[in-house]
Amino acid sequence: MCEEKPYYGYPTWHVLSNFFLGSLILIASIIGYFKINPLMLILIPPAIYFFWNGFSWMRGGSLEQKLKIREEFMRIVKPVDGELVLDVGTGGGLLAIGYAKAMKRGKVVGIDLWIPAMGGTSMETAVKNAELEGVSDKVEFRRGDTCNIPYPDNHFDKVVASFAVHTIPCKKRDEAFKEMIRVLKPGGTLALLEPKSDRWIRWCVDENLRKKLKEIGLRNVRFHPMTITYPKKRTVYVITGIKGVKP
Ligand SMILES: C[S@@+](CC[C@H](N)C(=O)[O-])C[C@H]1O[C@@H](n2cnc3c(N)ncnc32)[C@H](O)[C@@H]1O
Predict the structure, then answer these.
(1) What is the pLDDT of residues 166-212, one digit of tens each?
(2) What is the pTM for the complete model shown?
(3) Which CATH superfamily is domain 63-243 in?
(4) Is the C-beta atom of 15 inside 6 A of ligand 1?
């Protein structure tokens, strides 16, 4: 019997681009068959390849890579027993569940708006993943906006996020940073895993970001490079900082 595995969602753009390419090639092959040459049907196998690729990523074919990313993240931002941790934009609960598993005592909260088609997870997925990973007693999930976090000031020891902040529209990102730092206890750690840059959505891990985080109240802001193969080989960054005593 097959043991049920947690489902931590998929890389949306990668899935969409596979489906887009598959459709494009399929249409070219059908039009080519009728208008150019019956041999154009030779394009059908590549079209099937792209559809298959898209479906297998959607079904959670990336689990192994996601677990590796979580392990590497937690090697850089070590769990501390007894802490209260917040995972924003938690999706299927990848980081929240990872920290809960690593602590004997302590509590982790995962918040998300579970925006449709952004990673393909839901609160139900996250709750089920926590059950499958055996940490339902230490982790809880609730609907909440990163730009208006439903917790009081100075509440959490750590605020973490993976691939969540860059998905927030650029005009609202400053609010999200302020909120994440607001709910951190003085001396607490903020840690964000994000891509290096993306021109389309105006995201960049650079000196401007460091300056902004310092202005909002973080000190010791550091960028830790991490090479991942999700969904392709690339370098991403774990951005860490400590909340100053007087933000
Ligand atoms: C790319 S997914 C990453 C999910 C998860 N952290 C992971 O690494 O598997 C981004 C997540 O951020 C969530 N999200 C986007 N904007 C948000 C906001 N303003 N507040 C809370 N969650 C948000 C989306 O619903 C989605 O679940």
Answers:
(1) 999 999 999 999 999 999 999 999 999 999 999 999 999 999 999 99
(2) 0.91
(3) Vaccinia Virus protein VP39 (3.40.50.150)
(4) no
For residue 232, count CB atoms less than 10 angstroms from its CB and return exposed for 0-12, middle for 13-18, buried for 19 or more.
exposed
Q: Which of 90, 133, 159 to mutate to test the pocket of ligand 1 (most atoms within 8 A of CB)?
A: 90
- What was the pLDDT predicted at 227? 96
User: What ranges do the domains of the chain cover?
Assistant: 12-58, 63-243
Length of the chain: 247
22: pLDDT strictly greater than 70? yes
Q: Please, is 55 exposed, middle or buried when counting C-beta atoms within 10 Å of its C-beta (0-12, 13-18, 19+)?
A: middle
Residue nearest (by alpha carbon) to ligand 1 atom 11: 89
**Sign of the CA dihedral 212, 213, 216, 219?**
negative
* pLDDT bracket for residue 246 (50, 70, 90): low
Structure tokens at 162: 């993976």
